Amino acid sequence: MSILVVGSVALDTVKTPAGERVDALGGSATYFSVAARNFTPVSLVAVVGNDFPKQHINMLKKHKVDLDGLEIADGKTFRWSGVYSGDLNDRTTLSTDLNVFAAFEPKLPDNYKKTPFLFLANIDPTLQLNVLKQVKKPKLTACDTMNLWIENKQEELRKLLKSIDIFFLNEPEAKMLTGRGNLFKAAQEIIKMGPKRVIIKKGEHGAILFSSNSVFCLPAYLLDDVVDPTGAGDTFAGGFMGYLAKAGKVTDAVLRNAIAYGTVMATFTVEGFSLDKLAKVTQSDINKRFNNFKKLVSF
Amino acid sequence: MSILVVGSVALDTVKTPAGERVDALGGSATYFSVAARNFTPVSLVAVVGNDFPKQHINMLKKHKVDLDGLEIADGKTFRWSGVYSGDLNDRTTLSTDLNVFAAFEPKLPDNYKKTPFLFLANIDPTLQLNVLKQVKKPKLTACDTMNLWIENKQEELRKLLKSIDIFFLNEPEAKMLTGRGNLFKAAQEIIKMGPKRVIIKKGEHGAILFSSNSVFCLPAYLLDDVVDPTGAGDTFAGGFMGYLAKAGKVTDAVLRNAIAYGTVMATFTVEGFSLDKLAKVTQSDINKRFNNFKKLVSF
Q1: Nearest to A218, CA basis, from A200, A232, A237, A233
Q2: How far is B181 from B195, CA to CA, in rounded Å?
Q3: Chain centroid to CA B21: how far?
Q4: B contact residues 187-246, partner A, Cβ 8 Å cutoff
Q5: Predicted pLDDT at A87
Q6: Cβ(B62)–Cβ(B23) under 8 Å?
Q7: Do A170 and A203 contact (CB within 8 A), yes or no?
Q8: CA of B216 to nearest chain A CA: how many angstroms apart?
């Protein structure tokens, strides 16, 4: 089954111990769609400015991401800039220039409205709600969020969560949203807010999938060389949702494999700047790393 | 096969969000031996003062820990006191009173010298080396350490590591010892210092076993109620070494199960203050949790 993703397409300026990139391709919807496209058809809704390099459009087209929903607006593309600490565990945002994204009002092409799988990447919950209103009862709706919306738009976020099947957020966000230090308790409280399942992302420590009556936990895939963690979470979500949509059903076994595929896809992203590595990944690369990962955690 | 453990037996005063305990039973060798005793015979070498409560001796005897090597010296027992943060991820040491431990010179009873498995719990590397000299070529030697020795006794620690088969340390310690932010690279450097295998403990994020040509990684077992993390690492080592000694051989499959059993044993420790829960665990509790853990991480 196919996925519709609504999120950001951006130009990122990033500095890590491995080097620096200026105005490199980034954005939650970008990482998500290229990752998911290895498993299933993907349509993308986002906005870029008329300064957005043609080569990035070509790359997305080469990956057969459906770009009918990519609006090209007058003005500059959304830009983000950040710097990572020496051990890559912390990052500082240096600047966020919304540019054309400031006036973004996602409008779905008619043929997008019957999407079976919907992923609302990390954007303002008001926009996420707006998209949700336009679609016709998807088989599965998932979303991501960030600390900014938990702080400033929690009412809208909570309204959104009532209609969400799978909610992605990271560990500090889960604690912030619930005021709970224990992840198990935090997840159970979030499930009471609406989502059937919660995926708590722990970065280099892996991810945990919670439902009301089960837990599944995986460590991250250990790499000897991490270049740039930007986009890892969005790639994880793309691999997860891509595998799920391809399977077309939500069983315990499918969900577990989806978490593993999400983890595997994220490793390619962090091994390079921007989508340098992710965009070049082959099915054989994915299968090989999936099998290695299975070996890494089996006992 | 049996294990000899050399380490501390202490009285701990601990404050966590769940409550407070004054002069409760603690110490690395205590947690280790009670955990390992579920798998294999254990002999303990340590020192306590003549104020050490008889009830603790009785508990250890009830668990059939061989106490021929437990010296009872004139003076007070080693005391440690600490307080945990609200989310239990940080702890502050309030006081460390070595007392009789200050003059501790481990002397092994003759029948201990041929131990097949030796665990040098976290004590001064000079003492660890001293014990190593007294034993006759054990089948397997493992040790733990802490930041204090990496800072102040690194030369002795490095000398010790040349004779170690399995080295336990936590994530910040591995980074401190090697100056490497990447755990994979840190572990490979440590292996060059001597140990055949390194186990990096990540607390609530699990543990990773490295050898020169393989990696095995497990998350921690998620608990909905953590009372007191004190002793978790020593219990982990006890479960790991206990399982290994019981198996009597060091294969990849045995090592993986040993990490899982170590993880499972540590959950009992953190569910109560001191050894309250750990000391009451049955074989059936262990098996049940081991099977649950397997389910938690399988895909």
Answers
A1: A200
A2: 20
A3: 21
A4: 188, 202, 205-206, 208, 215-219, 222-226
A5: 84
A6: no
A7: yes
A8: 5
Rounded to a whole number of angstroms, the distance from the CA of B247 to the nearest CA of chain A is 15
How far, rounded to the nearest angstrom, does the alpha carbon of residue A7 sit from its chain's CA centroid? 9
Query: B207-211 and B197-201: which strand pairing?
Result: antiparallel
- Chain B residues lying within 8 Å of A260, measured CB to CB: 299
* CATH 3.40.1190.20 applies to domain B3-297: yes
Question: What would the two tokens of residue B169 be?
Answer: 């340390």
Give the closest of B215, B222, B260 to A299, CB-based: B260
Longest CA–CA separation in chain B, Å: 55
Please give the torsion angle defined by the CA atoms of residues A181, B281, B232 and B157, in that order, rounded to the nearest 10 degrees: -170
CA distance B135 to B114: 6
Sign of CA dihedral B60, B203, B268, B257: negative
- pTM (2 decimals)? 0.93
Which residue is listed with tokens 């309030």? Answer: B94
Nearest-angstrom CA–CA distance, B200 and B211: 11
**Among the listed residues B17, B164, B156, B154, the one whose alpha carbon sits nearest the alpha carbon of residue B91:** B17
**Closest by alpha carbon to A200, among A180, A184, A221?**
A184
Please give the sequence-ordered ranges of beta strands (E in DSSP) within B101-179, or none if there are none.
Answer: 117-120, 140-144, 166-170
What average pLDDT does range B173-199 have in this prediction?
A: 96
Question: What letter would DSSP give residue A222?
Answer: P
Q: What is the mean pLDDT of residues B113-141?
A: 97
Q: Token pair for residue A147?
A: 């600390």
- What pLDDT is stored for residue A199 in this prediction? 98
Average pLDDT rounded to a whole number, residues B237-265: 97
Compare all CA atoms of chain B with the CA of A213 and give the residue at the minimum distance.
Answer: B296
From B256's Cα to the closest Cα of chain A, the distance in A is: 5
